[in-house]
Amino acid sequence: MVMAIVGLQWGDEGKGKVVDLLSEGVDMVVRYQGGSNAGHTVVVGERKFVFHQLPSAALYPKDIVISGGVVLDLEGLFDEISELGSDLKASIHLDYRAHLIMPYHKLLDRLEEEKKGTLKVGTTQKGIGPAYVDKVARIGIRVSDLMDKDNFADKLSAVLDMKNAILSQVYKVKPFSFDEIYLKYLSYRDRISDIVDDATYLLLDAYNDGKEILFEGAQGALLDMSMGTYPYVTSSHPVVGGVGVEAGFPVNLIDRRIGVFKAYTTRVGEGPFPTEVEGSIEEFMRERGGEFGATTGRPRRCGWLDIPALKYAIMINGANELVVTKLDVLSGLSEIKVCVGYRVGGKVSDRFSTESAFLRGVVPEYVVLPGWSEDISRVRDFSRLPDAAKRYLGFLEDRLGVRISMVGVGPEREGILRL
Ligand code: GDP
Ligand code: IMO
Ligand code: MG
Fold first, then answer.
1. Which H or E element spans position 4?
2. Which residues contact 257 (CB under 8 A, 6 or more apart)?
3. Which of 39, 155, 163, 317 is 20 to 30 A removed from 252 (C-alpha atoms)?
4. Does the CB atom of residue 228 touch ligand 2 within 6 A?
5. What CATH number does the domain located at 99-192 have?
6. What phi, psi does 402 have (nearest 5°)?
7. Residue 363: is its pLDDT beyond 90?
8. Whose CA is nearest to atom 13 of ligand 2?
9. Do 2-73+200-418 and 99-192 agree at the fold level?
10. Which of 13, 15, 233, 268 to mutate to test the pocket of ligand 2 (most atoms within 8 A of CB)?
11. pLDDT digits (tens, 9 = 90+) for 159-179
């Protein structure tokens, strides 16, 4: 059995919790794209773990894999490993193809955002975009480069010459010292030498041995570099298809393609958001849902569910199973709106477009459903949900045309209903 768990909105759908739940019987869990821009929360009893680069299954004794499509912040990875300490049960495999986030990537992420003016994306400033830019420009430094000391020195020296020219001449900031970065990364190299692997063969061998594999997407479909709301996107492919190109694992072997979405919508950073709400409803969602970034602490923008956007995300992922999270957050609203189409001119359509001008111009067509007042966070059986909550889920399943297999009613492991 192979699963992929991906976000269907603009990230933070609750993927971490779902991965933690579904990875229990799985042999291998893989992060295949993105990097430390991700913040995946797992709540176990009184404790909260936020995974950034390690898969959210690191609390189980199993194999976890960071594939070649990831851009890796080694310092952040070491911090994450040491914070987990004895909680880290898994053994880590790091693909030799993964690109390294270097100190200049983080600095450039900030400087470029400051210079962009109206083109600002509102990135997490973790160096993700600049590291992927170097990958595409073929001047990225990979894990394998670092493993070969002389090769690393040559590459770093050449790339640093280019980066320092930009930093000092364009941004007028102090250039980086070669020696400092070189020595620091050599010490990192010693710490990763035991975990460097060929993840592609590792995964295929595991599959051929009948092992269960779970691919954990970061971000969400609407942040996909090609298929998301460009330019307000991340620089990788968080969709199911990303597994093929970023981990070298054939996508036709993925049996369960599980799309996760919140019972409402959130977005962090810039970009169009047709169903965004302001005022008391936004406050309600943000406060009750704790809608502050797990990586940056920024308040998340909030709004109603958007069926055209979700249908698009389901389509581009080929999702065959859905998980709804945070249904409990909506308790107490007398009515709940769902956007079922976009009005443009005189016409209503449920087709999504990633064009900012289109999304900013549409008027959402809402269906208003009755809310419920009961606290559902301790419900553990679907049949015990209030009728209005069941009706809301039924409405969504009907409109989306894909089976909902689980519903989240609380952040902790137990806060899930299996349908
Ligand atoms: P991810 O990036 O998709 O893994 O999601 P985040 O961890 O960034 O954000 C999801 C937040 O919602 C976290 O604080 C989770 O603990 C929390 N969460 C997940 N599922 C539920 C749920 O069903 N109900 C509530 N109230 N919180 C949830
Ligand atoms: P998880 O995995 C929510 C957003 C940023 C910004 C845009 C580009 O926790 O769901 P980047 O730093 O990637 O260049 O930023 O993407 N973004 C996320 N939003 N959840 C995430 O990850 C995100 N990762 C990036 O806010 O708008
Ligand atoms: Mg998150």
1. strand 2-7
2. 3, 4, 6, 240, 317, 318, 319, 320, 321
3. 39
4. no
5. 1.10.300.10
6. -135, 145
7. yes
8. 234
9. no
10. 268
11. 999 999 999 999 999 999 999
**What is the residue with the minimal CA distance to atom 28 of ligand 1?**
411
b/e sequence 51-63, b meaning 16+ C-beta within 10 Å: bbbbbbbbbbebb
Q: How far is the CA of 41 from the centre of ligand 1 (A)?
A: 6
Domain boundaries, the chain: 2-73+200-418, 99-192
Query: Degrees (nearest 5) of the Cα angle 75, 78, 83?
Result: 125
Mutate which of 33, 36, 111, 219 for ligand 2? The one with the most ligand atoms within 8 Å of its CB, which is 219
**What is the H or E stretch that residue 343 is in?**
strand 335-344
Ligand 1 midpoint to CA 410 (Å): 8
For residue 86, give both structure tokens: 């004895």
What contacts 416, CB < 8 A, 6 or more positions away? 17, 21, 406, 407, 408, 409
323 C-beta neighbours (distance < 10 Å), count = 25
At the topology level, CATH places domain 2-73+200-418 in Adenylosuccinate Synthetase; Chain A, domain 3 (3.90.170)
List residues with catalytic annotation: 12, 40
Ligand 1: lining residues by beta carbon, under 6 Å: 7, 11-17, 39-41, 43, 290, 294, 325-326, 328-329, 408-411, 415
| 318-347: pLDDT as tens digits | 999 999 999 999 999 999 999 999 999 899
pTM to 2 decimals?
0.98
Span 213-226, average pLDDT: 98
Render pLDDT for 54-107 as a digit per residue (tens, 0 to 9): 999 999 999 999 999 999 999 999 999 999 999 999 999 999 999 999 999 999
